[in-house]
Specification:
The chain has 62 residues and is α+β, with helices and mostly antiparallel strands. It has one domain (5-61). It contains 1 helix and 4 strands. It has a 4-stranded antiparallel β-sheet, with helices on one face. The longest helix is centred in the N-terminal third of the chain and has 13 residues, at 5-17. It is globular.
Length: 62
């Protein structure tokens, strides 16, 4: 699956909105994993997050 820039931006903004101060920095890299989930790696972390949209249109991450 290919994700649009708009969807990637929605994922980042939804995730950032959950924090008073965003600790992870800017997006460094985005890709789709073997399960078809969007993954985003951020500049200030040594980890990445998975993202998808649920049945109600909400962005979830793990």
């Amino acid at each position: 699956m290919k994700y649009t820039r708009e969807f990637i931006a929605r994922c980042i903004e939804a995730h950032k909105a959950a924090f008073e101060e965003w600790p992870y920095g800017e997006m460094q890299k985005a890709w789709v994993d073997e399960n078809g989930d969007l993954c985003i790696w951020y500049t200030k972390s040594e980890q990445y997050w998975h993202y998808k949209e649920d049945a109600y249109g909400f962005i979830i991450w793990w």
